[in-house]
Amino acid sequence: MPSGRDTTRSTGGPSRSRTYPGAPTTPRASAHHSLASHEVVLLLGTDPRRGLESEEATRRLERFGPNALPTAARGGPLRVALRQFHHPLIHILIAAGAITAALGEYVDSAVIFGVVLVNALVGYLQESKAEAALDSLRSMVHTTARVVRDGLERNVPSEELVPGDLVQVEAGDKIPADLRLLRVTGLRVDESALTGESLPVAKDETVLDARTPVADRLNMVHSGTLVTAGQGSGIAVATGAETELGEIHRLVGAAATLATPLTAKLTAFSRVLTVVILALAAITFAVGIARGQDAVDTFTAAVALAVGAIPEGLPAAVTITLAIGVARMARRRALIRRLPAVETLGSTTDICSDKTGTLTENQMTVRAVWTPDARYDVSGSGYDPEGAIERADGGGIATADDSAALRWCLLAGACCNDATLTREGHESHKAHEGPRAGRWTVIGDPTEGALLVSAHKGGIPAAVRERYPRVAAIPFSSDLRYMATLHRDTGTGTGEHLLLVKGAVEQVASLCSGQLAADGTTRPLDLAAVLTAAESLAAAGLRVIATAVQTPADPDAFGEDDLPGRLVLAGLQAMLDPPRAAAGAAVEACHSAGITVRMITGDHAATAGAIASRLGLLPPWHRAAPRPHRDRSRRPSRRRLPGRRRPCPRVRPGLPRAEAPPGRSPPGPRQGRGHDR
């Protein structure tokens, strides 16, 4: 058995396969996502219910080390100081100072060396200050993990997690290591930090093909990602540097440091300057000798000419200018480690920005509700439940008691839901109880948080979930594009069940055969009216969610194949993620600097176009076109912007735009697949 980690990779992806105490001694080449859960348990020598024994966990911690990413060796203060002298122009100045001192020109020599020292001092202080700030930020991050050891659940520091640990996760938890899932209940994970997928991913325990890429490994959760809904348990299969996040850390650390445009030009200038100065000195010396002048005097004159041609103030001027830029960035709460990074920001010509949470607040708010008989406007902002539902025709405030369709639409949004609303500073952390305290936040998906708020505004209390306890669920996925839940009605005493569904309009409508009226009767589905209403709401920049219901429902017929034709459409809820307050000013700043901004989003094309126009990214008459469906079985290809290579950072928070500078292609939203829930 190997005494260390076996870093052999399978042909199916970057997951590592290793052997552990108590595991079979035969090396395994399969990735963990391609193994059944019982095989993973045997491979890691653990127990799927009791977890590891404490003594075994201690031995593995000594063997595999702490569950933490290795810190880069930055060197001591001396190395940081010496790095400030590592530049061709500085080398020239040092040589010039030494030659000047050898010629007895001590004042000139002192000036040259003074410039070199000032330049080095400014760079050293800035880099040391940035590293100290980064260290203080790292020291503030302390996470814990809920593990089962000796058959008991306990909280341990994430650094003490070892391969084979049985880890429990739930909504709001940060995944502490790479886990192979054993059991899940409506588990969804935000993997944007690892894969770039902006929406939470539904997880399950299904065995996958060994060639499945990381982004599609639904039976795995990875270190550094965040649980947004549900709960689950899994076996830690990789910790520390062996995780997928650790692999990214290793690749980033191995990447070569690229020169910025300014440093590249200074390096080239230094080389040219060196050649020119040496050539002039040589020509001066040769001409002097040819004219019969004294060799020593001629050499002294040639050296003096060379030293005088060196721009001693250039390095200091560049360093001080960059330091001023760093100071300005620091006042805007931006941390710069190296001075040349400021110049890179100034060279930016294109910015690719996410929409949700970057250009917008990422606090969804339901603005409109549509039912087959009426349309309603919803007041309020963010996740604060203060507000009301008003009839769009001026009929006053409406509640769930006024319309059966409205009631079931709001009820489906509240119960077919995994999110929880909390209030900062409120001990109970219940959504609608107690006095007003701090800011309202959502644990889970922002879209589901908005549906909870709209239900409360319509008079449906948070306790509605207690009356309709959930019995089973079909989690949302990007393939299904809907979520379905089965509930038992405890209020009637008859034990009846009801089926609630929410999701993309087209998908939910395809499952319905009728639609609800205000008086509770069912009429044939008017699909054209539903789609027209959805397009009208989406054109206003709103994200549209459809809701449907079946009551009473058959609990024995609850599956994906059982839903089509059994549901009744209750209505649509349309929500808005409001733009950030500073977006307009950022657009003006970008355009005045000649920067092109592109918005990247997976929203519906009409929604994306409306948001882009509102932010100034597109003219009002522009229509956004959806991007063709992407085959996720293949890795995305690397695509370049048209024209010459140029810096194009993907930033957060993003900056919007109004019109493109002359000669550039007009920017706009880049569409991905729709993920309306």
Q: Name the structural class.
A: alpha+beta
Measured as a percent range, the helix fraction is 25-40%
Tell the overall outline. elongated
What's the gyration radius in Å?
A: 32 Å
Through-space gap between termini: 49 Å
Instruction: Report strand %.
Output: 15-25%
Low-confidence spans: 1-30, 427-437, 627-677
Mean pLDDT: 77
Biggest sheet details = 11 strands, mixed
Please, how many helices?
Answer: 19
DSSP strand tally? 24
Describe what you observe in this structure.
The structure is a single chain. The chain is of the alpha+beta class and 677 residues long. It has 19 helices and 24 strands. The strands form four sheets. Strands 9, 10, 11, 12, 15, 16, 17, 18, 19, 20 and 21 form an eleven-stranded mixed sheet that branches. Helix 3 crosses helix 5 (106-139), helix 5 packs parallel to helix 10 and helix 8 runs antiparallel to helix 9. The longest helix has 34 residues, at 106-139. It is elongated, with a radius of gyration of 32 Å. The two termini are 49 Å apart.
Q: How would you summarize this macromolecular structure in one to three sentences?
A:
With 677 residues, this protein is an alpha+beta fold. It is built from 19 helices and 24 strands.
Which labels suit this protein?
677 residues, alpha+beta, 11-stranded mixed sheet, 7-stranded antiparallel sheet, disordered N terminus, disordered C terminus
How would you summarize the topology of this molecule?
Blueprint lengths: L36 H8 L9 H11 L12 H7 L4 H15 L3 H34 L4 E6 L2 E6 L8 E5 L7 E13 L1 H4 L5 E2 L17 E2 L4 E13 L5 H11 L6 H30 L4 H15 L3 H19 L8 H7 L3 E5 H5 L5 E7 L2 E5 L10 E3 L5 E2 L5 H12 L4 E4 L16 E4 L2 H12 L6 H4 L2 E5 L7 E7 L8 E7 L1 H6 L1 E5 L5 E3 L2 H13 L3 E11 L13 E10 L6 H10 L3 E6 L3 H11 L34 E2 L17 E3 L6
Parallel strand pairs: 8-22, 8-23, 18-21, 22-24
Antiparallel strand pairs: 1-2, 1-3, 3-7, 4-5, 4-6, 4-7, 9-10, 9-21, 10-11, 11-12, 13-14, 15-16, 16-17, 17-20, 18-19, 20-21
Helix pairs in contact: 3-5, 4-5, 4-9, 5-10, 8-9, 13-14
